[in-house]
């Protein structure tokens, strides 16, 4: 139960009107708000929740927060009204207030690549062993993390949060809200450079997770990542390392490659050994497997559970998911997003997979790369030129320089998705493997749907 006076105190707000003194929950959506809930009208470049304050009250009979600068809203709106400087910040403040009341251990995961897979695999490994909450899907921004925090009931044993960013300072903001006891950074790679400038900026942003971890907590360092391996945490934290190439506290060894079916692996977890199977494609995913296993083991998940649960895990839609088509070829759906590192990993994986037919890459461009966008797309072209792929189809203006760099008959460039699909339909056949990947803005998932 949320009392109006406690809410106002937690968010540095002022009570403009009090008709209802307590609320059952916090809502940010006037379409789904329930009776007795308090409405928080969020704002963005293309929306303003203040326009729905009255609609929210009609459904909830409760009240709302409101920016102090919006008298045209709060002077006419019914119900309890709490005025704040900024409703977006007030949501974060409410979540931070709620966090102080929740017990248990908080786990936070961030990184340029693999954070959602690592989080989802960790949740899968823990299963129903312990009371656990987590932010679902990739709800890893300020709103998603805050809403997950506000929805926590009582005090679960573990609360697992994936933290994302696209601008400087966001990880620090989220981490100070979550106040994790265990923190892991999957890797540092060029991503969101429009907001983070360069690789150094990405590293600094990700490391803010470690720097804001609770005193007495534990940080998990990727020993294989040059940007992270040399990091030394502050004195009131303990460190654990995980690595595949480098010696570390937690390690993974591939015992057998299974092609499209994944890998047999041996996990070495702080001296304990477990053999299991991983049904994920790509060696890059093995680092996510190891990271999730290191966290799970440190949280008290038995080795037997890790061994038994690991083979059952499947990736989220759009994250290197193999799909068998009705016509006998395999589509690797990696359409969720793309950056330079994940593009290289995808090309390497496709190149190494056993294939009875052609290896085909259908690639859109990469977004949020800032001033170095053309350079990174040229580097992609160099990688594709050196690859053994049979056919390369490129979509969008960003990949024009990629096409120019390849400079041979294997590649074709398209401005239009429909033209690309028409061309591909005449080239694809039974036994082929088709990788589909690109930033979300290119809608590569539409190509996956058409193929499958």
Keywords for this entry:
single chain; 452 residues; alpha/beta; Udp-n-acetylmuramoylalanyl-d-glutamate--2,6- Diaminopimelate Ligase, Chain: A, domain 1; UDP-N-acetylmuramoyl-L-alanine:D-glutamate ligase; Protein-Tyrosine Phosphatase, Chain A; 3 domains; nine-stranded mixed beta sheet; six-stranded mixed beta sheet; 16 helices; 34% helix
Task: Kindly describe this structure.
The protein has 452 residues and is α/β, with parallel strands linked by helices. The chain has three domains: 2-87, MurE/MurF, N-terminal domain (Udp-n-acetylmuramoylalanyl-d-glutamate--2,6- Diaminopimelate Ligase, Chain: A, domain 1), CATH 3.40.1390.10; 102-312, Mur-like, catalytic domain (UDP-N-acetylmuramoyl-L-alanine:D-glutamate ligase, 3-Layer(aba) Sandwich); 321-451, Protein-Tyrosine Phosphatase, Chain A (Alpha-Beta Complex), CATH 3.90.190.20. The protein is built from 16 helices and 24 strands.
Kindly name the structural category: alpha/beta
CATH architectural arrangement of the largest domain? 3-Layer(aba) Sandwich
The chain-level mean pLDDT equals 95
The radius of gyration over CA amounts to 24 Å
The CATH class of the largest domain is identified as Alpha Beta
Q: Which sequence of strands runs across the widest sheet?
A: 11-12-10-13-14-15-16-17-18
Main sheet properties: 9 strands, mixed
CATH fold descriptor of the largest domain:
UDP-N-acetylmuramoyl-L-alanine:D-glutamate ligase
Low-confidence stretches: none
Percent of residues in helical segments?
25-40%
If helices are DSSP runs of H or I spanning 4 or more residues, what is the number of helices?
16
CATH homology-level superfamily of the largest domain:
Mur-like, catalytic domain
């Amino acid at each position: 139960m949320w009392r109006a006076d406690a809410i106002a105190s937690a968010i540095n707000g002022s009570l403009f009107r009090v008709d209802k003194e307590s609320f059952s929950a916090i809502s940010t959506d006037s379409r789904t708000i329930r009776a007795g809930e308090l409405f928080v009208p969020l704002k963005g470049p293309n929306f303003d929740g203040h326009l729905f304050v009255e609609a929210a009250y009609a459904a909830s009979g409760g009240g709302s927060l409101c920016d102090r600068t919006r008298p045209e809203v709060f002077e006419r709106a019914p119900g309890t009204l709490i005025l704040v400087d900024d409703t977006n910040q007030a949501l974060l403040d409410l979540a931070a207030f709620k966090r102080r009341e929740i017990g248990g251990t908080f786990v936070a995961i961030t990184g340029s690549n693999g954070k959602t897979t690592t989080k989802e695999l960790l949740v899968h490994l823990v299963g129903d062993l312990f009371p656990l909450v987590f932010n679902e899907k990739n709800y890893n921004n300020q709103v998603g993390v805050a809403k997950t925090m506000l929805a926590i009931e009582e005090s679960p044993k573990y609360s697992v949060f994936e933290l994302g960013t696209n601008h400087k300072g966001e990880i620090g903001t989220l981490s100070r809200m979550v106040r994790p006891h265990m923190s892991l950074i999957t890797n540092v790679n060029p991503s969101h450079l429009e907001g983070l400038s360069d690789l150094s900026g990405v590293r600094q942003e990700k490391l803010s997770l470690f720097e804001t971890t609770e005193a007495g907590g534990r940080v998990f360092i990727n020993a294989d990542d040059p940007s992270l391996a040399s990091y030394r945490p502050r004195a009131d934290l303990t460190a654990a390392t995980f690595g595949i190439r480098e010696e570390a506290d937690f390690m993974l060894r591939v015992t057998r490659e299974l092609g499209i079916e994944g890998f047999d692996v041996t996990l070495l977890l702080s001296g304990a050994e477990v053999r299991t199977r991983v049904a994920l494609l790509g060696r890059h995913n093995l680092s996510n497997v190891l990271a999730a296993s290191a966290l799970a083991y440190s949280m008290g998940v038995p080795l037997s559970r890790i061994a038994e649960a690991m083979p059952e895990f499947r990736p989220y839609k759009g994250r290197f998911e193999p799909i068998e088509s009705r016509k006998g070829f395999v589509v690797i759906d990696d359409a969720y997003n793309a950056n330079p590192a994940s593009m290289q990993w995808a090309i390497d994986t496709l190149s190494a997979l056993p294939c009875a037919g052609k290896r085909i890459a259908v690639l859109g461009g990469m977004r949020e790369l800032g001033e170095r966008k053309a350079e990174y797309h040229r580097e992609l072209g160099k990688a594709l030129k050196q690859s053994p792929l049979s056919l390369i189809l490129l979509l969008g203006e960003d990949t024009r320089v990629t096409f120019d760099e390849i400079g041979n008959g294997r590649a074709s460039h398209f401005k239009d998705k429909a033209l690309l699909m028409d061309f591909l339909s005449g080239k694809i056949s039974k036994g082929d493997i088709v990788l589909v990947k690109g930033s979300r803005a290119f809608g590569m998932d539409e190509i996956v749907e058409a193929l499958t």
